[in-house]
Amino acid sequence: MPRTFAPFAPIESPRQALLLNISAFVLWAAATLLFKLLTHLPVWEVFAYRVLGSLLWCLLLLALGGALGGAWPILRSPRQLGGLLISSGLIACNWFLVIWAVANERLLDASLGYYLSPLLSVLLAQLLFREPSGRRELAAGGLCLLGVLLIVAGEHRPEVPWIGLCIAASFALYSALKKRSTVPPLLGLGLETGLAALPASALLLYGGLGAPASNAYSPLDWGLLAALGLITTLPMWLYIASVKALSLTTLGFLQYLNPTLMFLLAVLLFGEPAGALKLAGFGLIWCALLGLLLSKALAGWRSRWRPRPSGSASDSPKELA
């Protein structure tokens, strides 16, 4: 039997995809800890090293899987290359804004963006993929929207929360593009980071012409910068690999895990202020998600134990997601 390198094994089970998706969001939240430790460095340098480190890990995994040869036909296809250029720009924008938010003590703003993103994903699911939304999804979406409004009201800032809006739009659109993409997950991520590595390298070269801060990097700084590549590549592959086996609506609601963890880190660890309105919005969102997940679990259990006609005992249970 031909060997299949693990990163290229197809993810078809909704339960496996659900586990991968949750793991990705936990790792993304953990990445903010690295960004916080690197706030003394210029944001654009941290971003550039994040992109380049991710590219190196992708190339290593692709080489181990013997999939590097599949990149050339994709790059020769104008349609696929155009999609990769768009998705590369979207995810690069997302990465940069999160690093900027942590460096400027605005992680709660980034958290707000990830709270808004699932609502946009559900909207895109209806507009682009005609995915139906039942009463459970609509009720949960309404509670989440109310929670987001409370979070915005608790900001007490007159300006438009542009950081959160840009993060929300970039990630929701990226998710929609990956849902329709025919490029294998890890190969697509490698090509996206390769395209983003061009301007990232230009940033480092431009900074090197002046007074580069890299001369003052400590061994700990270099270690953290190197770790950025791994903690970027691993959750990105986990997320992209899970997209195909889950509906866009389910993906939209699962995206609330990332901002919730970021919210907790911002308030409990980084000391960013959170008033009563923000906490009330946080509570509403989690009540909505908990209710939605419990209702889906109950529906899955009912379908599993429902009596079946003879001859269909080997049918697979209905997917929970």
Overview of the structural elements:
- By secondary structure, the chain is mostly helical.
- The protein has one domain (25-202, 223-299).
- The protein is 74% helix and 0% strand.
- It has 12 helices and no strands.
- It has helices at 14-37, 43-64, 71-75, 78-103, 107-128, 135-153, 162-180, 185-208, 219-243, 248-254, 257-269, 276-305.
- The radius of gyration is 21 Å and the shape is globular.
Oligomer: single chain
Q: Would you tell me the structural class of the helices and strands? A: mainly alpha
Q: Uncertain segments of ≥5 residues (pLDDT<50)? A: 1-5, 209-214, 312-321
CA-based shape: globular
Number of domains: 1
Rg, nearest Å: 21 Å
Mean pLDDT, as a whole number? Answer: 79
Helix content: over 70%
Element string (H = helix, E = strand): HHHHHHHHHHHH
Number of contiguous helices: 12
Q: What profile does the largest beta sheet have?
A: none
Share of β-strand residues: under 5%
What's the count of strands? 0
| Straight-line N-to-C gap | 31 Å
List the helices and strands and how they pair.
Elements: H1 14-37, H2 43-64, H3 71-75, H4 78-103, H5 107-128, H6 135-153, H7 162-180, H8 185-208, H9 219-243, H10 248-254, H11 257-269, H12 276-305
Helix pairs in contact: 1-9, 1-11, 2-4, 2-8, 2-9, 4-5, 4-7, 4-8, 5-6, 5-7, 5-10, 5-11, 6-12
Properties at a glance:
0% strand; 74% helix; single chain; mainly alpha
